[in-house]
Structure formats: structure tokens, C-alpha cells
From TrEMBL:
This is Nuclease SbcCD subunit C. Belongs to the SMC family. SbcC subfamily. It comes from the Bacteria. Residues 210-226 have a biased composition (Basic and acidic residues). Residues 200-238 are annotated as: Disordered. It holds the Pfam family SMC_N. Heterodimer of SbcC and SbcD. Residues 15-773 form the RecF/RecN/SMC N-terminal domain. InterPro entries: P-loop_NTPase, RecF/RecN/SMC_N. Keywords: Plasmid.
Amino acid sequence: MTATTRKGTGIMLRLKSLEITNIRSVEHVTLKVDPDGTTALYGPSGVGKSGILDALPWCLWGDTGSAGSAAALRREGSTEPAQATATVLIGSDEIVALRRITRSDSGVESASAKLWINGVKQSNVTPASLTRIITDLTGLTAKTFRGAFYMAQGQLTDLMTGTPAKVQETFEELTGLDDLTKRIQVLREQCKEAAVRAEALPGDPAEVTRTADDAKEAGRESDRLQQESNSAAAAAASARTIWDTANQRAKELQSAERAARDSREAVVGAEALAADAAQAVNAARLRLHDLGEASEGDPEVQGAATRTACAALEQALGELTRRGTELKAAAGQEGSARTAAEQARAAHDSVDPDALATAVTDGQAEVDAGRAAHQEAMRAAHVADAAVAQRDEAIATLSRAMDAAACPTCRQDVGDVAALVDEQNAILDQARKDAAAAHQKATTLDRALLDAETRLRKAHDALANVTSLARVAEHAEEAASAATRHADQAAATLAELVAAHQNAPAPTGREQIHSAALAVHEQLTEQLSTARGVTAAWITLTDTIARAAAASGRVEQARAAVVDAPSPTDVAAAESCEATTRVDLDTAQTGAADAAAQAQAARATAMQLDGIADDAATRWNLKREAAEQAEVTRIARDIGIALRRDLLAEYCATISAAATDILTRLGGEHVGFMIDETFVPQVVLPDGTTRATRQLSGGEKARAAVCAFIGFSRQLAGGGKPGMLFADEITASQDEAFRRDMLTMLRALEMPMIVVSHTADVLDIASRVIRLQRPPLGSTQLAA
Ligand SMILES: Nc1ncnc2c1ncn2[C@@H]1O[C@H](COP(=O)(O)OP(=O)(O)OP(=O)(O)O)[C@@H](O)[C@H]1O
Ligand SMILES: [Mg+2]
């Protein structure tokens, strides 16, 4: 509804300059426009004039017009950024808007925008925000701008000759009324749908009342039964209290009766235990008697004395055992020492020192003889080696003189050297054999010498060992004597111990001592066994006496705890009372349970009826709300219709008045222009009659159309000056007289405008002329 909100403000959008790069047929062009006068955009058909004009709404609003998309606006064949920069005056503000599309390597176009207002660059401007700002500043959308300020090629006569439906469509588009009309259409449909929906919904106020009454009645019945249930519950609670009391009383009496019986039984039990304990004391005394003990006296003292006697016997037995063991060990050691001494003495006696001395002397002589023989053999071997060396030398010398006539040594003539060499070789062989034999002999003698030396060493060792064997035998004999002394000592000690126990003179001789010790051991062991039996009997007697005393104590306690039993009559009366009140309680509880069940059932019924009533109310509410909604939609529709009627009347009046004003100023037969809700544009003749514009001549239609167009512009400008007009070839296909007539009319409008034309007539009314040219298949350029 921009047309209404803008009312009375005035627009005054005027172009100052437009720089275009890579749009339609333009590679790069900058147009300087006269913002206050008439700028002619002049050039032959196809030079690029309409393309230049199309760049302006794209730059300001992003509107791509008939191209359909920004990518289609891009100059064919170019991949560089395509952009337009428009400098416009809106009121007194100077706005510079730039819009650009950039193509990526993958062919995707991305848009960007910039904006300056009175020289100040605005931050964060996007293509969408630029469109929004321009719309806010001008109060125009791209559509209304194109409709009311762009007199496009061929559009004017359409308005004058179209069917009412077509004229209405154009009218509403130019005035912006189409939005409201569409909204009303939508509201009409919504209205119908809402009414149908409300009618179709279930819901009935009578049902609401009926179900609510039913629910209330059920609620009352439920309350009544609940009260009855409460009374029954109270009666049951009271019966419970009475029964509790009777039950308590009966239980107390039963418990007293049980306690009396238990206390009597406890006395009997304690007495039985005491009798058992007394019997056990007698048995313990009999046992002591059987053991030959007088059972009188303090058992604890007696027990302690017998325990001491046991300990003394155990100690004596231990001592005897220890001494006996000692004697046994000493006798064993004595035997071993004596055997070792005998063995050492036998080893010493088995060697003859004189024979060993002779062996040493003989061995020494043998070694000396062997050593001399070996030295002699070594010497013979050396002599043989020297003889071999000598023969070797002689043969070498003779070999060197093989060819000479004289012997190299004696310088005498030698008749047959070879024979001489052979002779020397024979000697050499013999010398070698002699040397080998000499070496063999020396080696044999060396081995014999070594054997003799070994034997001599052994003989020396054996002789030296004789002394040591004598010392060992002496030591072993001393140790054997010491062991014998020790064994005798142990036997004497054991004998004294035996004598002490037997109260007799000590036995002599190890055998006697040993058998006497065994007899004492047996005797002591028997005494210990008896003493232990007595000790156990005294302990048993002590324990049974203590148990008998405790049992007597418990008998006393039980007797003291005996309680009196209640009267059997009282007990029977209390039990009878409990049974009677129990029957009353059961009856009351059954009644209460029945009443509670009835109350619950009634409550369930009441809740069910509540639910039914709620459902009925909900259904009715939904139907009522739907009906209200339908009513609201209907009111909105009616308001819209009324508003549209008022606006339409106002717009028709404004447009008719403005167009009439222009027509009158132009003069001629047509003194007025009229358009109303029938959408049949008409001109008024001087006699007051009207004529539909479709009946006019071509030229008259064009005149009327320009006037109507100005009317639309004025209406959009709120009645004020609409700013700059853009007229694209509005005189095309017309004869010269008509064209001149139109140009005269445009001049008479006294509005800034850009007039596009490929005929030169336009130059007459232009305050500035922009000439365009385009070489074949080239881009649009400014002509000089
Ligand atoms: N995206 C484009 N890239 C290159 N050339 C284009 C593009 N779109 C249109 N054209 C060509 O640009 C030329 C100029 O077209 P335009 O409609 O601007 O001419 P004009 O000057 O208005 O002509 P007329 O006086 O006949 O109306 C035409 O030849 C058209 O085919
Ligand atoms: Mg054109």
C-alpha cells in the first residue's frame, strides 16, 4: 500500500548520471543527464538505448525487467564484473547507488552493492538492503517506478484501448491497488472457508446444558453417598476402638495367666537342675574315694596341691630323661673317637720309613743318570745337525761352480763337478739319518728322565707323610680318652640321680646305672599318671560344687519370681467380651466398605458425566470460536472492500483531475479525461459529453495516454511533482505531425525527463543530447 502511505509527500526522483559496465549491449558508458531539463537519448534502432534505461531500475531496486535475471542482463561474452552506478536526487538528497554482479570461475554469479547518501558511504550495504533503502527513500517499488515513471515503448496505447479488465489490471498495477485487491480476494476465500468450517463443526448449546445438569445431579448423588460412607467409616472406627480395648484387656489377662504358669515351671526346672548338680558332686567325691583320696577339705586348695605334685614329678622325669640322653650321647661319641684312633694308628703302622728312604736314594740316582744320558744325546744331535749344515754348504758351493773349470773354494781345477756333487749328496743323506736318530734318542731319554723325576717326587712325599700320620693317630687317641672321661662323668651324674630317687647307694657300672635309671623312670611315670587323675578329680569336684551352688541360686530366684495367676472367671469374661466386640467390628467394617464402594462408583459416574459435559462444552466453544473467526474474516473482507472502493474513487478522481489539467493546458477538442471504477477511460468533449478513448484516432489516443500517464505519476507523487519521466520511443511508428505534436506536449509538461528516440525531432526539445553509436557486432558507445 505504498500508494496510500506516500500520499502528499512528493517524490522528485531525478537522475543525474548513470555509469554502466557490461550490461546488455554496453561495455562501458557514462551518461551525464540534465536533472532539471530534457535529456535526449538519441541513436539508431538497436544501438542500446532501452538497454541503458533498463540499467537504472536494476541498479536502484535490483529489478531485472524483461531480462528476467541479473545474469541475463550481463553483456554476452563478458566475464568481468557487470555493474551500474546511478547518481540520483531524491528530494534534496543526493544518492549514489552501485550494484554489481561478479561471476566465479565455476560460473556462479554473486551480487554486491554500495551506497552513498550525500557523500557519506553507508556501511554493511547488501543488494537486499540497497533495494529496501531505495524503496523507503522514494516510497516506490520497482514495479510502481516502472509503471508510473517509465513510459515504455508501446505501453501507452494499451491503456487507452484495452478491455476494462486489462485496463483495471494496468490501473491497479500503476497505483499499487493490486495488492489490496489480491488481499480482498484472499479474504473473500478465507471468509467462505471459515463459514463452511464453522457450520461443519459439531456443537450444540442445548447439549451443553443437558450434560452439565446430568453431571451436577451425579455430583450431588456422589456427595450424598460419600457422606454416608464417611458415617459408616466413623462407626467402624468407633467399633474398632471398643474392640481394641476389649482385646487389650483379654490379652493382658491371658498374658498374666501365662506368666504365672511360666514362673511355676521355672521353679520346677531350676530344682531339677539343682538335683542334677548335687548328684554330680557326690559322683566326684566317689571318684576321689576310688583314687584313695580323702575327699574332705577345700577342693580348690587340694586341687592346687595335686597340680604342684604333678609339676614336680614332670620335672623329675624331665631331668632323668635328660641325663639318660646325655649318657647315651657321650657313650656314642666315645665309640666313634675310639674307632677313629684305631684307624689312624693302623694307617701309621702300615708304612715302612726305611724302605721309603731307600726309594728316595734310588730315585735320586736314577734321575742323575737319566739327566747325564739326556745331555749326551742332545750333544750328539747338535753334532749331527752341524754335519748336515756343512754338507748343505758344500753342495751349494759345488752347484754354483757347475760350469767353471776350477773349484770356487780351493781354486783348483776340478775334472768332474757333478760326480763331486753326487758324492756330497750321498754323504748328506747319511748325515741326515744320523741327525734324526740322535734327535729320536734325545727325546726318548727326556721322557725317561721326566718319569724318574716324578717317581722321586712321590717317594719324597711318602717319606714326609709318615710324620703327619703319626701326629694324626696321637690326636685321635687323645680325643678317644676325653670321650671316655665324658661318658664316665655322665654315667656318674645319672647314677647319683637314680640313687637320690631310690634312696639307696648309687649303682656302679654303666649297665646297672642304665637299667636302674629305666626302673626309676617307670616308677615316676606311674606316679605322675596317678597324680594327674587325682588332680582331674579335684577339678571336677570343684566345678560340680560351683554348678550346684549356681543351681541352688537359680532355684531361689525362680521361687522369688513366682507370680499369682488371675482369676479364671475374669479371664473368661474378658475373652467373651473380646469375641462380642470383634463381631460388632466386623459388621461395622463390612458396612463401611460397602458404603465406600458405593461412594466410589458414584464418584466415577459423576466424573464420567463431567467429562461428557466438558466434551460438549469444548465442542460448542470450538464451533463458537470458528463462527467468531468467520465473522472477523467477514468484517476484514468488508473493510477491505470499503477501503478499496474509497481508494479507487480517490485515485480515479486524482488521476482524472491531473490528466484533465494537462489536456486543458495542451488545448484542443478534448477538455477533460475521466476514469472510474468501470475502467473505461474517456475524454470529455466541450459539450460535456464523453467518449471512450478506444474510439479516438491514433494521435488522440496517444495524447490522452500521455495525459493519463502523467495523471498516474501525479497520483503516485501524492499530487505533487513526480520527478523525472522516462519516455522510451513514445512517438515510434507515428507520422511526423504526430511526433511533433507529442514533443510539443512533452515540452508543455515542464518536467525533467529523459526522452529516448531514434528520430532527430527529439533534439528540438532537448536541453542536453546524448548520442549513441554501435559498430556492427560491437558494443554501445557515446558518439561525438
Ligand atoms: N545481454 C546482452 N548482451 C549483448 N547484447 C544484448 C544483450 N541484450 C540485448 N542485446 C542487444 O543490444 C542491442 C540493443 O538493444 P536495445 O533494445 O537497447 O536497442 P534500442 O536502442 O532500444 O533499439 P530500438 O530503438 O529499436 O528500441 C540489440 O541488438 C540487442 O539484441
Ligand atoms: Mg528501444
